[in-house]
Amino acid sequence: MPSLDSQNIDTPHETRPFRDHGHMDVVTLGDFTLGRGTFEPGWRWSEDVKPIAGTDSCQTRHTGICVSGRMTVRMDDGAEGTVGPGDVVLIEPGHDAWVVGDEPCVLYDTGVAAYAKPQ
């Protein structure tokens, strides 16, 4: 049966704070989850999310788009890249990441159903 459901990301279903530098706003509609991550300058996964996740590296598969700021991602195998505004990303599990520069990095991400959610 067709349906329509919507929720504005500015009034998310939940907000998951990072340890010190930002948060993830999360909207879930049925089995679809979208997050808007605001990663403030100084944010680093291994410092701000690792204590929440309890894993050595990020084990979430991220798919999304960066709309502002810059973030560098380093995979567990050493591969590294930086994303910025307009970059569409697919980041497989097994990585660390950090904000580059003095501007918050904002990413929309469909891979956040369990991201930064206390275990």
Written overview of the protein:
By secondary structure, this protein is mainly β. It has a single domain, classed as Jelly Rolls (Sandwich). Helices cover 7% and strands 44% of the residues. The strands form two sheets. Strands 1-2-3-9-4-7 form a six-stranded antiparallel β-sheet, with no helix packed on it. The model has no long low-confidence stretch (mean pLDDT 96). Residues 1-10 have a biased composition (Polar residues). This is Cupin domain-containing protein. Residues 1-22 are annotated as: Disordered. Residues 11-22 have a biased composition (Basic and acidic residues). It comes from Nocardioides vastitatis.
Q: Within the CATH hierarchy, at the fold level, what is the topology?
A: Jelly Rolls
CATH class: Mainly Beta
What structural class results from the helix and strand content?
mainly beta
Q: Main β-sheet, in a few words?
A: 6 strands, antiparallel
CATH superfamily heading: Jelly Rolls
What features would you highlight for this structure?
three-stranded antiparallel beta sheet; six-stranded antiparallel beta sheet; 119 residues; 9 strands; Jelly Rolls; mainly beta; Cupin domain-containing protein
Task: Write a brief structural summary.
Residues 1-22 are annotated as: Disordered. It comes from Nocardioides vastitatis. Helices cover 7% and strands 44% of the residues.
Present the secondary structure layout:
Layout: E1 14-17, E2 22-29, E3 32-39, H1 45-48, H2 50-53, E4 62-68, E5 70-75, E6 80-83, E7 88-91, E8 95-100, E9 105-109
Antiparallel strand pairs: 1-2, 2-3, 3-9, 4-7, 4-9, 5-6, 5-8
